[in-house]
Amino acid sequence: KEKKVAAFDVDISTLDLEAAGLPVVDLLWMDVQGAEGQVLAGAAETLKRTKAVFIEVALTESPYKGAALYPQISARLQADNFVCVGLGIDAWNGTGNAFFVRDLEKLVGK
Asked: Which of 5, 52, 85, 89 has the fewest CB atoms within 10 Å, counting from its CB?
């Protein structure tokens, strides 16, 4: 059976643009199939108003071409005072989820 190729025009945006009207983001949950680094790149202002981030990560090799790995994602979030407080990784493929919290010291009462 012959496969047909189709092309589509789609609108793209940034998280900063889409979340501009939100005064605070309690939890940013992100699973965008390897585009997490790109989403974070367009979220500088939103991250300043975000309390926690739950994000899909890969430790050594992502199944998605060009995806940012955990060290890059962690460094980006640490630059905005987020700390990784939870990391669940599948030993079979090195992928999983990470939970980052901003200003951990304030949350634990120090």
From this structure: 5
Q: Which residue has the tokens 């309390």?
A: 51
Q: Chain-centre distance of CA 63, in angstroms?
A: 16
Angstrom distances, CA of residue 50 to CA of 47, 66, 109: 5, 26, 19
pLDDT value of residue 106 = 76
Token duo for residue 74: 């962690």
Higher pLDDT, 64 or 83: 83
Instruction: Provide the β-strand partners of residue 45.
Output: none
pLDDT for 110? 59
Tell me how many degrees the CA angle 39-5-9 measures, rounded to the nearest 5: 40
| Tokens of residue 68, six digits | 């940012």
Sequence letter at residue 8: F
